[in-house]
Design brief:
The complex is a heterodimer. Chain A is α/β, with parallel strands linked by helices. Chain A is built from 9 helices and 11 strands. Classes of the chains: A alpha/beta, B mainly alpha. Chain A binds chain B through residues 50, 71-73, 76-77, 81-82, 88-93, 97, 100-102, 104-105, 109-118, 120, 123, 159, 163, and chain B through 181-182, 184-190, 192-193, 195-197, 199-208, 210, 214, 261.
Chain lengths: 248, 331
């Protein structure tokens, strides 16, 4: 079954065509990577799917429903979580509070004005469990903005996953990380997304090839090829457009 | 802080308030009521400013509507009991907020601030021009303050300043407790999240506009109650005292001086303003001038206000205590 499908998805910014008839298919349970040179339209594709922009034309089918044009909060509630390329956390709140907000969202607690949040033991416990699992427990009282870069990124990814989405969209999770940090992040993503469907944008080819079951190559806003990592490596067109550039 | 020490602090505070009129007389008690009204008003504004990140240049709109709401209710409805009179102020502001909220929650930042300036000025002009209803420049005054009573059980005369002192403090403390509770609920967390990063709140599945709207309405209702208590205290409301520009600006300054990031910050700010006004007006008419200088100094040197200073001192004290402890165990 396809959990996510885009049909002839196009998007332009004031006449600049960024996405042209993109037909992306993500199957239930797979780890799908989207790669492509800078400016290929990867993040725009993410933004259109997760509701930042309303697409100029085309459909986004998520769980057999067209979600094109819905706001981010609506799409999130359908079960799609995302992380950002530029870390987007609540920087003045502690790591604990950051994760707790995600847990509240998961439980659908939105307008509860009648209980002390600190006394909701089930929420606290779940938050603590998540913090321990992602190795942020030692820093749970540190404001997110003061965490080290690696840990901050880790929090960013953890928040996307703490809402327990059916489909998680990670936008360059390893952006700007050192080799060590990248390794830790890959292990973390592998651990947390076990059994989940994931779409990931990544520039680091080691990350892509170690995480993805299937890869889609985006180039000038269109899909150049889709296939297994092996197929993509051997695809002549892809080599010319993308991997070839790296070897020069 | 330990629970027992916290309770002690609250108990001492309560006793001080209870005995205050006895020791300081009615003049200073009236100053305390004025301070309490400002404190509630500033905290209500800070629910938006410090907790949700919405700066409004026209919060007087809700203070004034609360004041006029109560004044009009008391003028036109004979035999209206005291508690409904106070509530009518809060409800009037709440209704106004519900009407305006769908429009203003769509904007933020400068647009939000300036839109409120416009709305507040609009209300100001309305209060001036609708002379038949609001009394224009003269305002509304001279209405009877109903006693606090349960028929056949007891009746407390509110025209007695001493009784009114206790009543006003009680109403304001209850309103403050309600607001404080809101900040401690799951919704309070979402509010703070909206201030920190509205984008992430959206992507976490919370609807930013609804969150803002609810904070907005709560804040308006609290400001209305503040206005209502103020009009009962003064027995007079006029356009300038209700919707004037400075009425919008003072609570912002109180929040800045007291510390907008803390719930109690604006209360410290209001206390500071009350004291400053009391002392400076003895020597000079230019209270605003001194206020301006104070504000500049605070923004330059203590942007987190009194609450930030207290936090810093507490932190220093804790680290000092810890270092002493570790030294002690080492030797």
């Amino acid at each position: 079954m396809n959990i996510l499908e885009t049909r002839n998805l196009s998007h332009d910014f004031d006449g600049l065509r960024v996405l042209v008839d993109v037909n992306l298919v993500v199957e239930q349970g797979e780890k799908h990577a989207i790669i492509g040179p800078n400016g290929a339209g990867k993040t725009t594709l993410f933004n259109v799917i997760t509701g930042t922009y309303k697409p100029s034309s085309g459909k986004v089918i998520f769980k057999e429903k067209n979600i094109a044009g819905c706001g981010p909060y609506k799409i999130q509630r359908q079960g799609m979580g995302r992380s950002f390329q530029i870390t987007t956390t609540f920087d003045d709140l502690s790591a604990f509070q950051n994760i707790r907000l995600a847990v509240l969202s998961k439980r659908g607690i939105r307008f509860n004005l009648f209980r002390f949040v600190d006394k909701m033991d089930d929420i606290t416990q779940e938050t603590v469990e998540i913090l321990q699992r992602v190795d942020l427990w030692d820093d749970c009282h540190t404001p997110a903005g003061l965490l080290s870069y690696g840990k901050h990124r880790c929090l960013e990814i953890s928040m996307a996953l703490a809402t327990n989405p059916d489909l998680v969209m990670l936008d360059e999770p390893a952006a700007g990380m050192s080799a060590d940090e990248t390794h830790t992040a890959v292990e973390l993503i592998r651990k947390l997304t076990k059994g989940k469907t994931m779409v990931i944008i990544e520039h680091d080819m080691d990350v892509v090839f170690s995480l993805a079951d299937r890869i889609t190559v985006l180039h000038h806003g269109t899909i150049l090829a889709t296939g297994s990592p092996q197929e993509i490596k051997e695809n002549k067109e892809v080599q010319a457009a993308y991997l070839g550039q790296l070897e020069e | 802080m330990k629970k027992s020490t916290r309770l002690t602090v609250w108990a001492i505070g309560l006793i001080v308030f209870a005995l205050f009129p006895k020791f300081f007389g009615i003049y200073y008690s009236n100053i305390i009521v004025t301070f309490a009204v400002w404190a509630l008003f500033a905290v209500s504004l800070n629910m938006m400013l410090g907790f949700t990140g919405l700066l409004s240049f026209g919060h007087a709109m809700y203070f004034g509507t609360g004041a006029y709401g109560t004044a009009l209710a008391l003028t036109h409805m004979d035999g209206l009991p005291l508690i409904p009179a106070v509530l009518s102020g809060g409800v009037a502001s709440m209704v106004l907020a519900i009407c305006i909220a769908p429009l203003v929650v769509r904007v933020s930042g400068t647009a939000f601030a300036m839109l409120h300036l416009a709305f507040a000025q609009f209300m100001f002009v309305l209060a001036l021009k609708l002379r038949d209803i609001t009394g224009g420049e003269d305002g509304l005054g001279g209405f009877d303050i109903p006693p606090l009573q349960i028929k056949g059980l007891f009746s407390v005369d509110m025209a007695d300043p001493l009784c009114f002192f206790y009543f006003a403090i009680a109403v304001i403390v209850i309103a403050l407790c309600c607001l404080w509770f809101v900040t401690k609920t799951p919704f309070g967390q979402i509010m703070v999240g909206t201030r920190d990063n509205a984008k992430r709140i959206d992507y976490l599945g919370f609807r930013v506009s609804h969150t803002k709207a609810i904070v907005y309405i709560i804040s308006a209702a609290a400001a209305g109650v503040a206005g209502s208590v103020s009009v009962l205290h003064q027995n007079l409301v006029s356009a300038n005292d209700a919707y004037g520009m400075m009425i919008s600006v003072f609570p912002i300054m109180m929040a800045m001086v007291g510390g907008a990031r803390s719930f109690f910050g604006p209360i410290y700010g209001a206390a500071f303003f009350a004291m400053l006004e009391e002392f400076t007006t003895r020597y000079t008419d230019h209270f605003e001038l001194i206020l301006g200088v104070v504000l500049v100094v605070f923004i330059m040197y203590w942007p987190l206000g009194f609450a930030g200073m207290i936090m810093k001192l507490k932190y220093k004290w804790l680290t000092w205590k810890q270092s002493r402890k570790s030294q002690g165990s080492a030797s």
